[in-house]
Amino acid sequence: MRQGILLYGPPAAGKDTVTAALTELNARYVPFTRLKIGSGKTKGYRMGTPEQLADLEARGDVIYRNDRYGNIYVVDRPGLEQAMEGGRTPVVHLGQIAGMEQVTSLFPAHWVKVLLWCSKETTALRSPQRGDTDTAARLAAWDATQADLAAYPQAQWELRVDTDTTAPREAAKRIDDIVRTTSPFS
Asked: Does the keyword field hold Transferase (predicted)?
């Protein structure tokens, strides 16, 4: 059985940092690089074209699509399949519970769902430190994430981590412990 990790949280909650700590902890963890159609930051994305997106949509290979910051971000079936090759465990970043639901329902795997959280003040501090030029949009996304959580009180998490008070390596170790103890391979 395939397995993956879904990291959910607002902008600057530490999804990239915790993912890096996971990859250092165990080589089987790999960052899932979402397909991005648009402009701006390219690091951490597979840049695509509107034509590629149309082809994926026509084949039913778009698992989840999110339009934000003037761009389109896609979790796609071929990308997930490739990320899971050789028993690897991809770490997928999402900022919407609808995306979490889409991935878990449309891509069968053992998914460990983790809520990473930080205060809005922390997002305001971290956003420019990481090079964002649109911190106001990131803060609006923080508000949207908080509203998203309130709209889905039934959301289930294997782990909740406050990244204001938990170091990335500690968060990674806690996630790894859950993956190993709940893994169908254990």
From this structure: yes
